[in-house]
Amino acid sequence: MDTYQSIVESLQQKGFRITQIRSALIRIFSKSRMPLSAEAVLKRLKAHKVTIYREIDFLVQQHVLQSVALGDRKKRFELAGRPHHHHAVCVKCNRIEDVMLDGHLQKEIRIIEKNKKFVITSHSLEFFGLCNNCLAT
């Protein structure tokens, strides 16, 4: 079963209607390979701004989407429940790529917790630079 269908069925089992706009949002985020802002979604859909924001908030509350902060104060969203990852962001064209890190980061987190006597409940680690396309220009 694909991601779109499993999300729709999960929401329906909880008693929620799958409206046309809700379905379109789920489809857009299911196909996206990078976090999207509400403004980017608005460009793809013909809907009222308030409706898009309200539906994105609903999908966040239902743990279908999660918020992604990339340091530019622009809130972006991606599907929740994906394997833990970080992002590489091109500072010229704003292209965003997922970055998967191996277990070394978990070791560093444990060291920080021990040395600082601090319990880390989450973290954000993003990389900023130039993508191959922007380097070539």
First and last CA, distance: 41 Å
Average pLDDT value?
90
Spatial order of the strands forming the largest sheet: 1-3-2
Regarding CATH, which class of the largest domain? Answer: Mainly Alpha
* Low-pLDDT sequence parts: none
Report the β-strand fraction as a percent range. 15-25%
CATH architecture grouping of the largest domain: Orthogonal Bundle
User: Which fold name fills CATH's third level, the topology of the largest domain?
Assistant: Arc Repressor Mutant, subunit A
Shape: globular
Task: Note the run of SSEs as H and E.
Answer: HHEHHEEEEHEH
Structural class label: alpha+beta
Task: Describe the protein in words.
The protein has 137 residues and is an alpha+beta fold. The chain has helices spanning 3-13, 20-31, 38-44, 49-61, 104-116, 132-136; strands at 36-37, 65-69, 75-79, 86-90, 96-99, 126-129. It has 2 domains: 3-79, Arc Repressor Mutant, subunit A (Orthogonal Bundle); 86-136, Ferric-uptake regulator, C-terminal dimerisarion domain (Dna Ligase, domain 1), CATH 3.30.1490. The chain contains 6 helices and 6 strands, in the order ααβααββββαβα. The strands form 2 sheets. It has a 3-stranded antiparallel beta sheet. Strands 5-4-6 form a 3-stranded mixed beta sheet, with no helix packed on it. A hairpin with a 5-residue loop joins β2 (65-69) and β3 (75-79).
